[in-house]
Each structure stands twice: as C-alpha cells, then as structure tokens.
C-alpha cells in the first residue's frame, strides 16, 4: 500500500532531548525522595519515563515506578475529548507522593485524568512532568509542574509520540503535518 503520509521533519534532535532530560532530573531530584512513585502514562510516556528515571538515578535518586494506561487519541490526530482507562496503578499509592510522567501536554485532558486517579487512590502529593508542552488557546488545568520543552503547535512524532501507533521509536522529535 502506498504511504501518502508527509515525511517527518526533525524539530528536536536526540542530543537536545538528552540535555533536557538531564536538566529535568536536576530540577526534580531535590523535591522528591526515593519513596516517590514515578508513574508513566502509557503508551507514549514510556520513552521519556525510561530516560528520566535513569537520569534521576544518575543524580542519586532511585524512585519507585508504576504505570497508568490511558488513551484519548486512538489513531486520530485530535483528542476524542474523553479518556479511556485501560489499566490502573499496579500497587497501592495511598500516602505516597506520585510523579506523573508523560510525553506531551496538549489539551491537558490526559494529565488531568491521571491526577484525578492518583488523588482518588490517596496519593499524599501529586507532581506532574511532561517532556513537551504544546500551546493551547484556553487555560488548561492543572498545568504540569515540570516541562522540558515548549513545543510548537504542530503534530509531533518520535520519542514516544505516535502517528496511528507508528513512529514512536524515532529518537528525535519530529513534526508530521
Ligand atoms: O493533553 P492531551 O490532549 O490529553 O494529549 C496528551 C496525551 O495524548 C497522547 O496519548 P494518547 O491518548 O494518544 O495515547 P498513547 O499514549 O497511546 O499515544 C500522549 O501520549 C498523551 O498522553
């Protein structure tokens, strides 16, 4: 079948991504402890969460790890406006600080739902960190506590970001629009 998709254009090369992740680890390490539960939002957040937790370890912070599996885009380029929850936390988080990690903050609906689930589970504090934040015309709540990169308002692929399930493994972040 002929592929009519546009060619991805590199916006943020992997070397810049690595520098941004190391800088995030330096900023986050002082405000968490080793009992903090890093919580990746599957699927797209996997690549960033793997890098950030290892960057935290390099600065002496070895935190717990869990996952929430949420989806709102499916194969579309725009949010369906509703979040499907495919899998909850694996372990209890009651009384623990939770650090939610995701690849991109766009409408903000996914992060808001993750924060709601963590609070409902009894987390003592919920911090949020996204690698990329896209601009949005209206206020989003909550805004992430930590942001790596202010992205342009373009459709992004790579570093976990997908186009209908593909291109997540590109090491650079690219625009595909
Ligand atoms: O701020 P929002 O508008 O909610 O968009 C951000 C979310 O969208 C993507 O997830 P998606 O629902 O596509 O699932 P995926 O993680 O499987 O890619 C991305 O990984 C974020 O979790």
Notable traits:
single chain, 177 residues, alpha/beta, Rossmann fold, six-stranded mixed sheet, three-stranded antiparallel sheet, 9 strands, globular, binds 1-O-pyrophosphono-5-O-phosphono-alpha-D-ribofuranose
Q: Can you put this structure into words, describing what you see?
A:
- It comes from Brevundimonas nasdae.
- InterPro entries: HGPRT, PRTase_dom.
- It catalyses: IMP + diphosphate = hypoxanthine + 5-phospho-alpha-D-ribose 1-diphosphate; GMP + diphosphate = guanine + 5-phospho-alpha-D-ribose 1-diphosphate.
- This protein has a 6-stranded mixed sheet, sandwiched between helices. The protein has a 3-stranded antiparallel sheet with strand order 1-9-8.
- The protein is globular, with a radius of gyration of 16 Å.
- With 177 residues, the chain is an alpha/beta fold.
- The protein is 23% helix and 28% strand.
- The protein has a single domain, classed as Rossmann fold.
- It has 3 helices and 9 strands; from the N terminus they run βαβαβββαββββ.
- Helix 1 crosses helix 2 (46-58).
- The mean pLDDT is 96.
- The structure holds 1-O-pyrophosphono-5-O-phosphono-alpha-D-ribofuranose (PRP).
- Residues 41, 43-45, 71-73, 79, 102-110, 162 line the site of 1-O-pyrophosphono-5-O-phosphono-alpha-D-ribofuranose.
